[in-house]
Design goal:
By secondary structure, the chain is α/β, with parallel strands linked by helices. It has 14 helices and 11 strands. The chain has 2 domains: about 170 residues, Glucose-6-phosphate isomerase like protein, domain 1 (Rossmann fold); about 120 residues, CBS-domain (Roll), CATH 3.10.580. The protein has a 5-stranded parallel sheet, sandwiched between helices. Strands 6-7-8 form a 3-stranded mixed sheet. Strand 7 and strand 8 form a beta hairpin.
């Protein structure tokens, strides 16, 4: 028979919404100030750590215990997603056989706020035996961990955002940010391009944002193209059939010379059916070249407050090869 554990309401403080808001802002202010302090105290050890990451011919092994371990998992994921192969090794499991996951040529990144986490000692000494350099991240420069590390990145000594100064909050935020700084700096130094990032992020919102518009645009027979002399009555039929809210007006050689949008139809409603496409079109319309990323196409649509763009041939900029509509981007989660 399990004994029911009841919450003790006597210790609960009643906070108004204003007080809750104040507390929340206070936590963020404390952590933001700590991040500024961390930025100010970065020294030559930081580029030394980046150089170790760049020189490795193996993988980046990231380890930490408790809350530092959670940050280490995220750090490993960030390294991998920015082109630096990495994975997390749990220090407790490492002592029971997972030390075999570390090989010569790897680099170890170890996280511990105190620098004295006992579970980290075996994995750090094993890395040292293999000749693997170690980047230690802690708030205690003269800790046992730092005596073994090749490079020491010291966090500023700050108060945790927890009122009792116990629960890891500010310290783990600093670790997280420092890991981002290492990963992004290493990515920049290696010249990782957006095209390479696309290969590493084929799924999710990042993958969608980095898709080239050629992968999602309406092309060939789906393009609403009309000749300049076409009567507007027929243009309306084409726009209705394609349902993209736009028509591209082309000359005899198929070059885009203007566009007609739903807005153009409303602005020129008087005598509309007695006109031709060239009478109603907007010349010099906004277009994008083939190869543009989806997120960049969305930014152009948003800035210009339009809903569709013609995509032009990269080698023949006057020739339309597709149309991208804002709804296509919204369906991918780009907003």
């Amino acid at each position: 028979m399990f004994q029911e554990i009841k919450h003790n309401p006597g210790r609960q403080r009643h906070l108004t919404r204003a007080q809750m808001l104040s507390h929340g802002r206070g936590v963020l202010d404390v952590e933001a100030a700590a991040l500024t302090q961390l930025s100010d105290q970065l020294d030559e050890d930081f580029p030394r750590a980046v150089e170790l990451l760049l020189r490795t011919h193996g993988r980046v092994i990231v380890t930490g215990m408790g809350k530092s371990g959670h940050i280490a998992r995220k750090m490993a994921a960030t390294f991998s997603s920015t082109g630096l192969p990495a994975f997390f090794v749990h220090p407790g499991e490492a002592s029971h056989g997972d030390l075999g996951m570390i090989q010569p040529g790897d680099v170890l990144v170890a996280l511990s706020n105190s620098g004295a986490t006992p579970e980290l000692q075996p994995i750090m000494h094993h890395a040292r035996r293999l000749g693997c350099p170690t980047i230690g991240i802690t708030s205690q420069r003269h800790s046992p961990m730092m005596k073994v590390a090749s490079v020491c990145l010291t966090l500023p000594k700050v108060q945790e955002a927890c009122p009792s100064n116990i629960s890891p909050t500010t310290s783990t935020t600093l670790m997280l940010a420092l890991g981002d700084a290492l990963a992004v700096t290493a990515m920049s130094a290696r010249g990782i391009s957006r095209a390479q990032l696309e290969l590493l992020h084929p799924g999710g919102s990042i993958g969608s944002r980095l898709l080239p518009v050629s992968r999602i645009m309406h092309a060939d027979d789906q393009m609403p193209l009309v000749p300049a002399a076409m009567p507007m009555q027929d243009v309306l039929v084409t726009m209705t059939e394609k349902s993209l809210g736009i028509a591209g007006v082309v000359d005899a050689q198929g070059r885009l010379i203007g566009t007609i949008t739903d807005g153009d139809l409303r602005r020129k409603i008087d005598g509309l059916l007695s006109r031709s496409a060239s009478d109603v079109m907007t010349v010099n319309p906004k277009t994008i070249p083939d190869g543009t990323y989806a997120e960049d196409a969305f930014a152009i649509l948003a800035v210009n407050k339009i809903t569709a763009l013609f995509v032009m041939d990269a080698e023949a900029p006057e020739m339309p090869v597709g149309v991208i509509h804002i709804h296509d981007l919204n369906r991918l989660g780009i907003r």
